[in-house]
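Collaborator request, handled under Task 6.
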Amino acid sequence: MVHYYNGTVVEVAKVQGSPEYLKLMARLATSKPSPQPTLNFMREIPIPSRLLEYLFPSRSSPWRDWWRWLNMKMGRPIKADDVEIISDLLQELKIATEKTIFQPLDRVAVTEPGFQSLDAETTNAALRILGLRTWVRDSVYYASRLVEGDAVYAANGYGLCTNYEDRFQCSDEFEDSPVPTVFVVSYYRNLLYTSIMDLSSGEAFPHDSSLEAQLVDYELGLDSLLENDQGQTVLLDRLRSQLQILPRESKYTVTHIFLAGESITHPRFLATLKDSMSELSLGSATAKIQLAIDPTFAAARGAALYARRRQEVPSECYERGECEEMRMHERLRTSTREELR
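Structure tokens returned to the collaborator:
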């Protein structure tokens, strides 16, 4: 997805994940973050940090890329790890985008599903292999992560500052606004993914964006629903039940429901979703099920919007709008050379 300065939005490409990628996402969705390995001998033998990073390169280290390059040159077999698998998918998107905009990419914004086991270090390492930098987690003033639900929230037109070029005014704009409870439902051919956003204010793209809860079910994708004619009633009942879990467990009442995913508009799924939400007595939230944009590219549209705004407002400098007015006023009051004679 590309968001131009004139407001034009171009949906570039939709890439199907490889079997390795789908398997990786299934593992990350159900696993806990793995602790960093510790070496017992490090406690007794002092090792310079630079040498340690060289011997045991982390995913975020350029040494890791050097080791991979060396192994390729020596003809050693390389087993694709998480970084390579994600990088392969991003490379397909990179190639498709560059063909569309007729120029090379330099910096991008990538959304993440919010899995605890998928950290920014892995995504950034995958981007670095492709020679790409990220607009996310690159400044203390901007988002430390770009969660899919937050991107979908913004893509539907919510939480966007009127004057986003002024960071202070942007924060003030949502200071007294009611805090929404956002329920995001993503539906694909191979999985159901739901999440509830834990927003500290109504503002999209906050510095700290997290998920209150999430649910992933790889047995309730549209393909399973359509292929299993005999057990379809059982699957629909399970789907209805899964859709209700997070709203029931949430300590706040759901105020907005946003939809995403390539299969979300299937009539059977939409009917099940509406019936499921009506049973919860969410009140006006049921009427706010959002389908204003193409749900297939909802998260990508939000990421592109964030990247454009982030690029327009540098993090290294900031100046209030009234500063220019003060300078103009000073210029008018400054005596000319002729007046000083």
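The cover message to the collaborator said: "The chain has 13 helices and nine strands. Residues 38 and 286 are 49 Å apart (CA to CA). Please let us know whether this matches your experimental observations."
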